[in-house]
Amino acid sequence: MGAGRRPSHMLWPPAAHRDTIARMAEPEGGHQGPRRPVAGSALPRRLGLWSAIAVLIGSTIGSGIFRSPAGVAVRLPGPLPILAVWATGGLFALCGALTLAEVAGALPETGGLYVFIRTAWGRLPAFLFGWAELTLIRAASLGAIATTFAEYAYRLSGRDPAAPAHVRGVHLAAAGAIIVTAACNIRGIRWGAIVQNVTTVAKYGGLVLLIGAALLFGLRAPGPSHFTPAVPPGSFSWAPFGLALVGVLWAYDGWADLSFVAGEVERPRHVLPRALIGGTVAVIVVYLLANIAYLSVLSVDEIRSAHLVAADTAQRIFGRPGVEFIGAIVVLSTFGTLNGTLITAPRIFYAMAADGMLPRPVAAVHPRWGTPYGAVALTAGLGVAFVLLRSFEQLADTFVTAIVPFYALGVAAVFALRRRPGYDPPFRVPGYPVVPLLFVLAVISLLVNAIAEPGSRVPTLAVLGVVLLGIPVYYGTSKWRTQTVA
Predict the structure, then answer these.
(1) Among the listed residues 200, 274, 243, the one whose alpha carbon sits nearest the alpha carbon of residue 49
(2) CATH at residue 239
(3) FRET label pair with 37: which of 53, 64, 241, 361, CA 20 to 30 Å apart?
(4) Helices (runs of H) and strands (runs of E) counted in the chain
């Protein structure tokens, strides 16, 4: 149908379903300030099932599976604890994806998690999520991914990205990557989806090839197995397990990002649940197999000291060409994740602006291409600023702590929504209420452990403090928001 006006029978949601959403959208306890109609249907629906799955997988598989295994092995130096924490992270993501599949099917609107939190818990928690995304989460994530992309692009070109003469160039290349992917996504969601489909197939296929080669090499290699002893003395305790889980969740992050573009998914009540569950399961399978493959080739001590464990695995099997192959996979992987982030994240700011919580130009939709170009430009601008001013470690350290409380609120929305009249999701989470409850309890345990552990206490409290600073900002700008909506 293109970007033009749709006939009335093609509009989503249908009139009856729009009325149901409107009734559910009022948080229990009454009206909480001025509201705009949700703008979810203002963006054309152009993402099919496979593109939606590609968005999820492409947003998830980035640098984490290549960088996180070393940090995990430092804290849990045993084969079984390593595999256990990756399986736990996968279970965590699957519980969240199963629950969001229900909520997203019932509320298929642009903004995803923001909309779920606002509908279930009210405008203040939704604003805090947007505030955290604006000040901490999204720009830091974008900057960290772009930095990894630029570093490995430099390596592929034969230059050392850590050399003092190249540090500034790495930052500029990272900023350029953000600008290029932003331009693709302003040009149209189909352009962004094409980039996402191609890079997702390339990086998932590359990982599968590496896994197959590593398993064949490891099973045929002489000498002692790297899987025994399964639990060496001192390789497991609960506090390091919790800290290792933070790194694992960085690698798994992205399973919820598809919900941000729910307003642009075709037949969303059919496609969203399938894409959320199918994409998350595909990521869990390849991550578990990747860690088994690494252990088939490298010892736990070698994994602990590996900066890029996949490259060391490939070098052991193929020599120098294996390192170059993995470098190319990392470049494709991070570029795809960068593109996926610029497909999904701007929809949060678009939904906030449509609600009157950000200036109206942020909600501008391009008259020809049908994309939220104002929100894409804002997201890219923040990412460029962060990547030029901060290092990878500074960008990545705050991410998981800032995002998981809002994942918990989004998942817990199912408890509130199931009590609302007219709630009619196309899919219901199996194992309710245990599955969403497990997710929420896991988030609480993760945060308590991070605060209790002396090494992570100060940065964790600092991140949570920045999030809570959004409360006075919310009330301090209430008069402006009222005038904006009026």
Answers:
(1) 274
(2) 1.20.1740.10
(3) 53
(4) 22, 0
